[in-house]
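task queued by scheduler; priority normal; single chain, no ligands, no partner chains; default sampling; output format set to structure tokens
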Amino acid sequence: PPTRATDVADGDVARTVVDPRLLLAAALAAAVALVAATVAVLRATTRPTR
């Protein structure tokens, strides 16, 4: 009996398995977007006067 989802079929079932690299890239992109949003909010709220 197949133990992994990728062993069940070579078609669309194999594509449904999430690639760890894709998940890592998504998490990295989310972190970068969160940092960018935080920086934008801080710059908008502080408004440093020189």
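post-processing summary
- The CA atoms of residues 32 and 38 lie 10 Å apart.
- The chain is about 60% helix and 0% strand.
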